[in-house]
């Protein structure tokens, strides 16, 4: 049995960006989500590290995300971890070297806005029957 499931809670680094896939012109939305971890170092002082996560939302989920989320929003992202790799050539002539790059991203199944002081919306999963049924009701209250 296998499981590929990711859940992160963080803040959006910049406004979500709508894009088109080169292969089939499918629309998707890309957003950067920052998470942070803190720990005490050997000197008993608090240290922290911020990790940036690339999140991709496809189809109607991507449309709703692009329309309603903005930089600084606190979000819960649920989805799957996906890798892609490509080769890039550096240099010219005899000293050219090819380096294989691997990218990690989260393919979002649902994104929930967690901002304080706002009514908490229902999470909507992409492609689920519950999303289709609750989409009209959710669209009246919160557009994602």
Commentary on this structure:
This protein is an alpha+beta fold. The protein has a single domain (6-141), classed as Beta Barrel (OB fold (Dihydrolipoamide Acetyltransferase, E2P)). The protein has two helices and six strands. It has helices at residues 59-68, 129-141, and strands spanning 6-12, 17-20, 27-40, 46-58, 74-90, 97-113. Strands 1-3-4-6-5 form a five-stranded mixed beta barrel. A hairpin with a 5-residue loop joins strand 3 (27-40) and strand 4 (46-58).
Instruction: Give the overall pLDDT as a whole number.
Output: 85
Q: Number of helical runs?
A: 2
Q: Write down how many β-strands occur, each being a DSSP E stretch of 2 or more residues.
A: 6
Structural class: alpha+beta
Instruction: Supply the CATH class.
Output: Mainly Beta
Instruction: Give the topology string: H per helix, E per strand.
Output: EEEEHEEH
